[in-house]
Backbone:
């Protein structure tokens, strides 16, 4: 776990700093005076050896410092803290929505294989996997904000602003998760012990709630955690569609402005969150499954 | 796993193949036979709706022919995504074979790098790479290649591991066949079918990501006709010309759906044909 986070931190550093190319020269422009390039290089700290830069980056991280923005001259950590609530709210509501769609849909489809609900889910997941979420966002804007005019167009000032982006993000994630729920419940229903429980006269909803679901949820937890992480990363594109000033937009603006400290810290922040979520899912997994607990 | 044995699913597969053939044909033929070029402007005929005379799918904000631009977009998407998949395979397959054969040092190291690379969700890694390389179609291909290489490495590693434990490979090792020859003769032919399946499904995802990245303005620069850029421009004209937002997404969705379906069928076919290789 610690190793993964350290690697993620390192990769964020390597990608931005070590890939050939001089950030200082890029920032200064093509025909800048050499002294100006040198000045920026000193400010970035890229004139020192890579190993020293790396140790400084790690040292800063341990103190919670992520560097200073080149264009705004502010600590990056403050900028991230400012934008995080928007992205977190968006990802969180999209995640709840994903679960609300995926769990019932997957369950209904699993109870009656090849039934109406199963075929509907099949079509939904095919479509959800093929259609990119940002296009879903654009179409939702077209329908609800431009044509029907019931929801606000751009921005993130009211709760209403979050509805469309959350739906856009949730559709494709739910398509995938519902497939997992379906497969997992199906597999559980085929096991021998279910026959035994049925023989004892437990049927229908009671069988599902008390016996099938707790066991079938295990693979779902893992996949759901990955989905939550992808919601954080995927919000870069959706925030752009809906002009929401979140974390993704911060990173994207920084990319265009060549503000490397912000890109490096923002990317690392999301990736570390993703690793932590997966780690939390592993813990949840052991709590949910007594077999793993006793095996330890 | 007998989904494609049912008749309805076979129908879907035929539809998917038809979509791919249609996409390939229009990507090849429209650039040659269309009376318009993708960047040719006609400011007297802006925002013509689909079905207008001379413009089957209408025109955009500069009066450019949407059908022509979509076909060129297919070409651009195939090039960028194809380049990405090719690069991913070129990086990932050797790493996977190496990790599967040399289990003491290389395997854990490669596994660690793969895990770490996979902990950058979605387009994040690609955005970081493009931040350094600068935006453009080639850069997007490179970013896609780096993004998808771990996927290839992981699958090929598992496959190499199971193949190298097969009796005949063990025997060949016992007979003193050199490692390189063993890789070429036994490992690679066994690994290739699975690489093909992954390549197909990653190609579909790469097309989506390419569109997303050029939508963000990180791919080819305007006036290049790519689906992502078309959607980016269309976002400003939603109320005037909704067809500009709808059409590129529909074409993109159909192509990705078709590739996914063909990829599924391919893996199903390989699974049923070679029961030993299905345990990845």
Residues:
């Amino acid at each position: 776990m610690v190793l993964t986070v350290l690697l993620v931190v390192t990769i964020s550093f390597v990608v931005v700093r070590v890939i050939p190319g001089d950030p200082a020269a890029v920032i200064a422009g093509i025909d800048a005076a050499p002294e100006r390039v040198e000045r920026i290089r000193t400010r970035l700290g890229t004139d020192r050896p890579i190993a020293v830069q790396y140790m400084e980056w790690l040292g800063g991280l341990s103190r919670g410092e992520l560097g200073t923005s080149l264009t705004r001259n502010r600590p990056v950590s403050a900028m991230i803290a400012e934008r995080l609530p928007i992205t977190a709210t968006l990802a969180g509501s999209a995640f709840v929505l994903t679960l609300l769609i995926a769990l019932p849909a997957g369950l209904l489809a699993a109870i009656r294989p090849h039934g109406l609900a199963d075929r509907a889910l099949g079509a939904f997941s095919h479509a959800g996997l093929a259609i990119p979420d940002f296009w879903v966002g654009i179409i939702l804007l077209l329908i609800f904000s431009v044509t029907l005019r019931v929801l606000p167009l751009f921005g993130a000032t009211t709760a209403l602003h979050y509805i469309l982006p959350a739906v856009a993000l949730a559709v494709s994630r739910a398509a995938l998760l519902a497939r997992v729920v379906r497969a997992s419940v199906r597999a559980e229903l085929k096991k021998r012990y279910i026959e035994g429980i049925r023989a004892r006269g437990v049927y229908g909803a009671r069988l599902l709630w008390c016996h099938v679901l707790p066991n079938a949820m295990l693979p779902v937890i893992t996949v759901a955690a990955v989905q939550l992480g992808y919601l954080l990363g995927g919000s870069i594109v959706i925030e752009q569609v809906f002009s929401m000033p979140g974390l993704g937009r911060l990173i994207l603006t920084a990319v265009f402005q060549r503000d490397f400290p912000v890109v490096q810290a923002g990317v690392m922040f999301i990736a570390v969150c993703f690793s932590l979520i997966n780690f939390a899912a592993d813990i949840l997994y052991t709590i949910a499954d007594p077999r793993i607990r006793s095996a330890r | 796993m007998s989904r494609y044995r049912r008749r309805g699913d076979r129908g879907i597969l035929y539809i998917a193949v038809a979509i791919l053939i249609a996409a390939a044909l229009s990507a090849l033929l429209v650039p040659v036979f269309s009376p318009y070029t993708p960047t040719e402007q006609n400011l007297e005929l802006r925002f013509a709706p689909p079905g207008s005379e001379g413009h089957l799918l209408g025109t955009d904000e500069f009066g450019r022919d949407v059908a022509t631009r979509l076909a060129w977009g297919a070409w651009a998407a195939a090039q960028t995504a194809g380049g990405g998949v090719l690069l991913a395979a070129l990086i990932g397959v050797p790493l996977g074979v190496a990790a599967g054969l040399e289990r003491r040092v290389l395997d854990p190291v490669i596994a660690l790098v793969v895990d770490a690379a996979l902990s950058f969700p979605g387009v994040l890694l690609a955005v970081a790479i493009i931040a350094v390389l600068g935006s453009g179609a080639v850069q997007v291909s490179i970013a896609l290649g780096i993004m998808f290489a771990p996927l290839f490495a992981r699958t090929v590693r598992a496959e190499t591991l199971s193949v190298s434990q097969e009796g005949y490979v063990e025997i060949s090792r016992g007979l003193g066949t050199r490692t390189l020859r063993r890789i070429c003769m036994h490992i690679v032919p066994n690994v290739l079918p699975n690489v093909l399946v992954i390549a197909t499904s990653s190609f579909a995802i790469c097309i989506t990501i390419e569109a997303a990245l050029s939508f963000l303005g990180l791919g080819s620069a305007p006036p290049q006709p790519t689906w992502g850029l078309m959607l980016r421009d269309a976002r400003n004209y939603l109320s005037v010309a909704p067809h500009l937002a709808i059409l590129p997404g529909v074409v993109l969705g159909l192509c990705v759906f078709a590739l996914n379906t063909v990829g599924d069928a391919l893996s199903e076919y390989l699974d049923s044909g070679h029961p030993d290789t299905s345990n990845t």
User: Anything to note?
Assistant: The first helix of chain A runs from residue 2 to 18. The CA atoms of residues 100 and 174 of chain A lie 9 Å apart.
